[in-house]
Amino acid sequence: MKTHGAENLSFESIVASGPNSAMPHAMPSGRKLEKGDFVTMDFGCLYQGYCSDMTRTVMIGKANDKQKEIYNTVLEAQLAALDALKGGMRGCDVDKVARDIIAKAGYGEYFGHGLGHSVGLYIHEEPRLSMLCKETILPNMIETVEPGIYVPGFGGVRIEDMVVVTAEGCRNLAHSPKELIEL
Ligand code: GLY
Ligand code: MN
Ligand code: MN
Q: Cα torsion at 103, 26, 145, 96 (round to 10°)?
């Protein structure tokens, strides 16, 4: 980020592995990475006074069936929300697109935060893409789309992109791949 001109981080980077990945704002610990861990990396920088924000989750070793199901459910929810998001929608309606997919897969109780938030001079700005937000999302707003599933003691997955809202849809500012990477 520094090489590309970042002035600072936009927030303290989050890197969480194994059971810690089940905590959306996990703090670092001395735990070493192990085969079978999800590793969630959530980070962003400050560039010309504005914040950025993105998350990717990767797998150490091969994912088991439950891990694949969780990862693919989060990915499906994220892609559906990105597909639906456009200017004129209420924040709660965008949230619902992702939340319904996660709930249908049986993980509704494990998606314990809003789908996303506006980003600008601050990392978290209003309006939000959340169940409670009745405000309208307008063209040119910058939003994150970051569904997650967090299973206590097991681990969690979050996938987060930052997009520019348009009248017809949205333009994704993140270009990193999102299929499950097994390292
Ligand atoms: N870690 C802050 C966020 O993604 O909203
Ligand atoms: Mn983030
Ligand atoms: Mn975010």
A: 30
